[in-house]
Design brief:
metal ion binding
Length: 455
């Protein structure tokens, strides 16, 4: 049988599911989903027309529905919640893992959240309220309280017995966290360590006391970097008194990394996402968010027109200079965008440290000189071929060298300046670098041309 990629299989399931639902062959649709993985079922339901998403979801057993619901996009979750009867909603939401439930509530209107909270069991309501009480985008907000903790005076035999009784109620059992009577985190051990130990040994004798943890107020991006750095499956979260209150698992980290990367890409493009799915956001909201940045860029770009108007007499005497303005500012913008992109990405991944700023700027400046020299030599020949005026060609070439150096230095320096000001370096995005280089590039070009041509 021919092998298929994951995307092809998902699309095939979605198409077959849609056909079966349109034919009202519900038994066939239900049978189709039996061998399909939970995550792929969620993808298939998301790809269906909105009118049939609820029908497909209702074909699942209660256990499957709860798992599939956690994988769905928040917008699809909201649509399904509106279609369900109150009892259906209560069972699904009440059985969700606490961190996924808190993430869902973050996306829902406050009125709906209040209603759903009232429907939860007392224990789940308290757990959800606890998570929602922490600041957004922190370890406390994304953690799950469904962790496994034991006391260090327990023997291996006692520990294994307790793990067997609690395993189904915990999100992960690969790490066992050890606490004292006051719930202070004192150690950690893996399930492997537990299995290999002697039955009469105590947890305190085999656990690792040097535990890596994060606090409830730690930024979620820092949590993700910590898990990535240590190759953890999960990391413990403690409060101000180092009491264990939850864990953040690697599946949550993957969601965080995707979310943060998406936000950085939007910011680099001067697009305000607002944390929403861009392609599912109302068009008027999209336009309102984008127009602000575009108006700022429009106003700043008018400075380029002002420079050209101020130097108009030079262009009137040597009209050939006008033809090369787009070439120069376009190249300068591209060089600046390249430099800013690599520096911003380096700062986000911590491959570049703030104290390395001067070294990085110097490196990019040298790169700008090399790029300018190579591009400038080509442009001099090309400009002379087009215009037949050697002095104009030299002015264009030397201007390109200067603009490349300016763009490289400014593109690498401004993200460090923004970081020092406590702002997101991604705000110094390609459009802003391009605008700044446009204005200064035209100014350099026209003044250099005036000096070389003796005007």
């Amino acid at each position: 049988m021919q092998s298929r990629s994951r995307q092809e299989l998902q699309e095939l399931v979605r198409q077959q599911l849609q056909v079966l639902l349109e034919q009202k062959n519900f038994q066939g649709a239900k049978a189709l989903l039996v061998p399909v993985q939970i995550a792929d079922i969620a993808e298939s339901i998301e790809g269906l027309p909105e009118a049939t998403q609820a029908i497909a979801f209702r074909l699942l057993s209660k256990e499957e529905a709860i798992e599939v619901f956690e994988y769905l996009d928040p917008s699809v979750q909201q649509t399904l919640l509106e279609d369900f009867k109150r009892q259906d909603v209560q069972e699904i939401v009440d059985n969700m893992s606490p961190d996924d439930r808190a993430r869902l509530f973050d996306e829902l209107p406050a009125k709906v959240v209040r209603r759903l909270l009232q429907q939860l069991s007392p224990a789940e309501r308290d757990t959800t309220a606890l998570l929602l009480g922490y600041a957004p985008n922190t370890a406390g907000r994304i953690m799950t309280p469904e962790y496994l903790s034991l006391k260090e005076n327990m023997t291996i035999t006692q520990a294994l017995e307790q793990i067997r009784s609690l395993a189904n109620l915990r999100e992960t059992i690969y790490y066992i966290y050890v606490t004292d009577d006051a719930r202070h985190l004192t150690g950690i051990l893996s399930l492997r360590d537990l299995i290999l130990a002697q039955p009469e040994q105590t947890l305190g004798s085999i656990m690792t006391r040097d535990v890596v943890f994060v606090h409830t107020g730690t930024d979620q991006e820092e949590v993700a970097r910590t898990i990535q750095h240590y190759d953890f499956v999960a990391i413990p979260v403690v409060d101000a008194e180092r009491r264990l209150v939850g864990i953040v698992t690697v599946d949550d980290v993957l969601d965080i990394l995707e979310q943060e990367t998406t936000e950085d890409i939007y910011t680099l493009g001067a697009v305000e996402s607002g944390g929403d799915n861009y392609f599912q956001t109302n068009l008027f909201t999209v336009a309102r968010r984008r127009v602000v940045w575009l108006l700022i860029l429009l106003i700043t770009n008018s400075a380029t027109a002002a420079v050209i108007t101020n130097q108009e007499y030079i262009l009137e005497k040597v009209v050939a200079l006008t033809a090369f303005i787009p070439l120069l500012i376009g190249t300068g913008g591209n060089v600046g965008a390249q430099s800013s992109t690599v520096v911003i990405r380096g700062l986000n991944t911590e491959d570049v440290r703030p104290h390395e700023a001067l070294e990085i700027i110097k490196r990019e400046g040298i790169a700008g000189i090399l790029l300018g020299a190579m591009l400038g030599a080509v442009v001099i020949l090309w400009a002379f071929f087009l215009q037949g005026n050697f002095l104009v060609a030299v002015a264009v070439g030397l201007s390109l060298v200067s603009i490349c150096v300016l763009a490289s230095v400014s593109g690498s320096a401004l993200p460090f300046v923004f970081r020092a000001m406590g702002l997101d370096p991604a705000l110094m995005s390609a459009p802003f670098i391009t605008t700044a280089v446009d204005v200064l590039g035209v100014l350099i070009y026209l003044n250099l041309a005036r000096w070389i041509l003796g005007l």
